[in-house]
Amino acid sequence: MTGTENRTRRPLRIVRLANFVTPTSGGLRTALDQLGRGYLAAGHEPVLVVPGDRPDDRETAQGRVITLPGPELPGTGGYRVLADRRRLRRLLEELAPDRLEVSDRTTLRWTGEWARRARVPSVMVSHETADGVLRTWGLPAPVAARAADRLNRRTAWVYSRIVCTTEWAEREFVRIGARNVVRAPLGVDLDRCRPGRRDTAPRARWADGERVLLVMCSRLSVEKRPGTALDALAVLRAQGLRAALVVAGDGPLRPALERRARQQRLPVRFLGHVGDREQLADLQAAADVCLAPGPAETFGLAALEALACGTPVVCSASSALPEVVADAGACAADDPVSFARAVRTVLALDEPARRATARGRAELFSWPRATDAFLAAHDALPAPRRGGARQGALR
Hints:
Shape: globular
Helix content: 25-40%
Radius of gyration: 21 Å
CATH superfamily of the largest domain: Glycogen Phosphorylase B
Oligomer: single chain
Largest sheet: 8 strands, mixed
């Protein structure tokens, strides 16, 4: 990370490119929105470019958002990509960015080469590990690691910096000897997500007569392993624990998961995408435990939101989430018996104490602090804090 004395004091036009963003996206969409707002507050000019079904260009609370037409990827539940390189290259030349920030290490990696030729400092944000995703798609670990190393060497060479949100995500770049990696954790809205939202009425409605309410907020796709949550619920109920599961999120696996729940007579309610952030926070606060089974998660914003609401998290030990969750929950091997055991371990703790621990852990993360870290990666000064106060300051 560069020192404050080396950061530019002038406003910067920070052009951000992202694929796999839809109106029903989760963590990436939230991160883009919050960082854009933070860049604006710091006096910079963020411009976000994303794919869509039709062109658009508008000013928003996170800055200017430009939509370019992009093809939909089959089997992804609506994800699109910025596939027209010529059109995107023209747009980049027209925008003349002072900084380039890219949130896709695969189809958009060529923009790092464009930035090098244009002498524009560039940042690639690693929202997922290459070998982690390849392993979840079925590649043997050694093959996935070799393929990831080749991809990561090219990525580290073309971009000025690589931003990783956790030490876990950073490891695959450390493994290849990359020296341009910086750490910038994400944040959580500590005002919207708070323990005080816990209410017995909505909890009773979602639990539907069961004693324990589990929640999973996740895209229902193969790399997230949502089936592990249903399998763990089946184990818990076979052990005599009256538990129900509410799933907030959508994706290509939803029909198969719904069929499985019906066939096994599991009390699972599928809400689909929950666009109302207030309703989602109410659900996260109402739950007893949040499940995060994705083995390739590099941060886990939904899990952090649950912690901020006072709800402990049981997560995959293979992911970065044990680093985020720490003692505010439990980690488990990627099998349903281990997840069920971890849920019981959490439930055995004193409820007020475990909820206070969850909230305390979340308060170590905030969007102002995250924005400062991302701006440091761009060699840009952070936004001034009124009276020096910061949301979620360390206790």
